[in-house]
Write a structure and sequence with these properties.
heterodimer; A: mainly beta; 6-stranded mixed beta sheet; 3-stranded antiparallel beta sheet; about 45% strand; B: mainly beta; globular
Chain lengths: ~110, ~120
Amino acid sequence: QSVLTQPPSVSAAPGQKVTISCSGSSSNIGINYVSWYQQVPGTAPKLLIYDNNKRPSGIPDRFSGSKSGTSATLGITGLQTGDEADYYCGTWDSSLSAVFGGGTKLTVL
Amino acid sequence: EVQLVESGGGLVKPGGSLRLSCAASGFTFSASSMNWVRQAPGKGLEWVSSITGTVNYKYYADSVKGRFTISRDNANNSLYLQMNSLRVEDTALYYCARQRYGLGDFWGQGTPVTVSS
């Protein structure tokens, strides 16, 4: 049972938009920045979004992040087959531990 | 180019110990906080431990507190995780990650740890 709650799976057609939610609490998302990670099976996680909505160099603007209250959302537009992966949200908790969501598997139909 | 290379994983019996290493290059290691994150087979990411860059504050997940110890050698650009009293549930791929942005802006490829009798 993860501290942050994500839907187990989402799907959409190529070219479409998808959003992935991440629900936390006032002790984690409510007071700290959220980051998002993409993990293609068999590879290491890759940072997509940090500080709620900032993209590292090299991450296309098809990926976006937002936060409201104790929830955060990752958006992906113009879906490509290469976007098929597991996506994780993460943040710090007031208990001085870091927490991740359980992960969301994105299928591009 | 930032590189993180983990090593030291392997097969160990319950109750045993392992020491993981992470060799860093391509950035100012001493100024960077570092994380260990693990992933059990078929499961999601689980944060294990963090260490700050200069003052060396250390943080641990409740699941490993008292059994695992994080440390670093800034002179040799290396991060370590000493794992004692290992349990079957510690079986996972262990990643080291640089924590400059988010919980990890660069990740190694991981080193596998299997705890089994």
